[in-house]
Amino acid sequence: MNLKVIILALSAVAVGLVELIIGGILPNIANDLNVSISTAGQLITVFALIYAIAGPVLLVMTNKYERKKVYLIAMAIFFLGNIITYFSPNYTVMMIARVLTAMSTALIMVLSLIIAAKVVHPSHRAKAIGLVTMGISSSLVMGVPLGILISEQFGWRILFLGIAVLSVGSFILVSIFLERIPGEKSIPLSQQLKAVASPKIGTAHLATMFMLAGHYTIYAYFTPFLEDVMHLDANWVSIFYLLFGIAAVSGGALGGTLSDAIGPQKSIIIFIVSFAVVLFLLPFSTFSMFVFIPVMLIWGALSWSLSPPQQSYLIQTDPATSDIQQSFNNSALQVGISIGSGFGGIVLSQTGSVSHTAWYGSAVVLIALACAVFSITRKAVVRERTVKELHESNA
Fold it and tell me: For a surface tag, which of 53, 56, 112, 272 has the fewest beta carbons within 10 Å of its beta carbon?
């Protein structure tokens, strides 16, 4: 695989850790900053909200500037945000730092996907996106257990100092190995929003949102699922999170490989259908560890498999606005995580059974399937071909 793509994937790991790593250490942060746990939890909520909004907005604002320079500036701001977090004397300062890191993370993540798609041949585009997605998914799924492990030994602040150090390494690698990538003639924001609002592209983003919403309907409550249904203690719960994380990281590569082999449209349908089936079957597998573990591993692998074919599909559908579409798709992912977590909480409170969250999650994934089928079967909007589109088709 292209060294540049590997560097972008490593950067995604370093940057992605900052989002959910505090999920398992909220009590430590709350005690240190003298706030309630629910107040400390807003550090996660605000991050996701800023991330979802800032990605598309910052991408439009920086579209005409040279990509590598924008990437490095965003990485420098990310470093600053983590240093402020490390030294934050109170909750207000830490919230400001979270806003800075959320904005920079959103831009770095989408630029990593955009640049990865540009530095490889189109026939390997989905695989390159898949590798970067592996970096993103690994940071998200491993962030919580990694945060708990390190904070117990060295305190919660050292986590953010470590992330800042990792970002310096990424900054150096990008500076050395990535070539300058010119900015592009800015597509009017009205045209980009019009593309997002089109039935074909809009429902593609909704498919991503509902896929992640279905996943997080149960995954947000995976700990009580393992404790109450599988009767595992804390040590075994950590091991199962590790196994799930390893499987989830493989999902990006799986999605990219299949998309390059059979095309993004078929891959999207296969992954969403498979995911709905696995979530539905999950509660029926809990009678035996020998059955549950393979089903859980398949669930983990499929949970992040959609992103590469979906990103590739968006690039093919409307090359002229593909950059902003990738950003909106990342935003849809964040919104899906928030919706799924909230919906799962409602299901849990109403049914009293954490097992039921899997079935409700499967139903939500079926909504994603309907959106994907609707999108794929719509005709693309025919517009005057731009210089960028001509370049894409001749590549």
Answer: 53
